Please model this.
Amino acid sequence: MAGAKKSPTKKLFYEAVFKHSLEAIAILNRQGLIVEVNPAAVRLFGASKKKLVGKAIDNFGQTSLDWRQLPEQGEIQFQQFKGEIKAVEYSLVRDFLPQYNLLILRDISEVRLNALAQLKLHHQRVELFSEVTLKIRQSLQLSEILQTAVAEVQRILQADRVLIYQVFANGTGMLIEEAVLPEYKPILGMKFPEEVFPEEYRQLYTRGRVRAIADVRAADAGLAECLIEFMDEWMVKAKLVVPILQNFKSTTEPEGDRLWGLLIAHQCQATRQWTDFEQELMQQLADQIGIALSQGELLENLEGLVAERTAELRQEISERAKAEAALRRSEEQLRLIANGLPVLIAYVDRQQHYRFNNRAYQTWLGLSPPEIYDRHLLQVHGAAEYQQICQYVATALRGETVTYERDLLLQDGCVHSLSITYIPHLQEQDKVQGFFALTSDISDRKAIERMKDEFISVVSHELRTPLTSIHSSLKILATGKLGSLSTQGERMLKIADEQTERLVHLVNNVLDLQRIQSGKITMNKQACHAQELMLEAVQAMKTLAQEQDIQLSVRGSDFMVWADRDYIVQTLTNLVSNAIKFSPSNSTVVLSAANEPQPKPHLKQQSTSYITFAVRDRGQGIPQDELETIFERFQQVDSSDSRKKGGTGLGLAICRQIIEGHGGRIWAESCLEQGSTFYFTLPELIQLESDRHD
Model:
């Protein structure tokens, strides 16, 4: 494998990471056999490295496992070497090195067991609460409800005494239900004085206050002295108090929660730390008691409520019917619009099945919407065509918009040029649900472009000969062999010569660009030294640089690239020429080459190793919004540049065609008033030769 060698420090760093990683790491060959594992993997597999190397990773799945079919991330049931089953999260990096895959495993068995235990505990709590709630709600008789409540709470909490205390409007209260162990004295029916339950307590409980006191005599319990004496009299060591609130409506009082009473649990034998679950259960049961108390009032108004709700439901049904009708009309309108457009419109889901397509599919491809619906792209387009579009489909399903062009034989028997765009359908958390496919016929546009190119080519060819003659004649006149001219005549002759030379250069550029785009030229690629290419370009631009008082510098090691020497020198010459024209005097234009191209978000990742060439100037810079358009034909930073610098607006377009013809990319970076750098990439010869041997 070609590429830059890693330093010993980096190698030691990677080895340390591999050795001390807490996650199990296994390296697999293309047959799925283990070729290397780290210590964490040895522990996870439950076997020594010697026993693991050479074993198929498929053997460790609890069920039939084919690692070639696994997605890049997920969970599997994993069987250790000695047979123990583990729940494992994995990440699979395919072809992270030629011939090898990287598998990273993390044991989540304990997490799963803890989750199951918590789920079981929650389930038990829900069942317990449901059981008690059912018993409370089975009867509308208040005495039966209260008796059931205290008995069940005592059973569940294993409390020594459980009470229901009713609060009266005058601030006093009375215990009306009790469940108590035989060894403790009951206090049912006892009436409490107001000072034991003051107004501030009632206000706190009305707002939902819950009091869990582990020790009634503790300083932080905050109990009044008279209440502590009462607790001692009835041997209360700890208590849990939850308000019973009743929601009610009154014509004289504002709507809200009313404190009906308290649900109280006593621990008499010893102090007790009340758990969060016990407090939550008591609070939920108190809520159920409050609901049961309200049911009596609800029964009186049940018929009215039913009638009111029936009217509301009828209104909701009517509104829903109107909304559904409006939705159907909207869908019909959208379908009519889609069917009326002269383009192909479709929606494809994540499984690459058609979920919608307009009527144009029948006109163009001879396939009606019902024939396409729910069918896979492969079934609709066939294997050969699917092979050509599958890469673009994969890009769309990764969440990236993609546009491409292709020629296709349509129902009319003619080959049409089509422009196809896939727009991802993203939902929450940017998850791709599918993509919209928009296809338009650009045959007319292509035909016009061909006519334009042919016209430009013909005109350019027709202009080249007379322009060459005129230019030659002007050169002869400038020598003075045909007679001397006045000072004004010489000045006019010089202007005419410069403008004629500019026209000749423009015509040559147009013809070069037309030949490259039409594919009429063949690039003779060969092994080239990157440094020699840059030196040749510098030599060609040396005179122009001296005239502008610009220094040219070549930096970087000598790399071998696979390229057409003349065309790459032409590219470098164009870039250096631009750099000279737009650089201030006494500055330096630097040419360099490196084997580590700078990452660009708009560039596709390439598996082949590339050499990156760079031409950097210290000129005025280029605005960010024009960095892409400058590579189009007849495009410059502003119109004045063409007049001041003599540019034609075709040089960068020619450079792009040449570099893309080599399988590379060209782009620019710039900072206003600080200069610009133009980059392009070429395949590295060493990598290409390695690929051939593989």
User: Anything to note?
Assistant: Residues 121-300 form a domain with the Beta-Lactamase fold (CATH 3.30.450.40). Residues 597-607, 639-643, 687-694 have pLDDT under 50 and may be disordered.
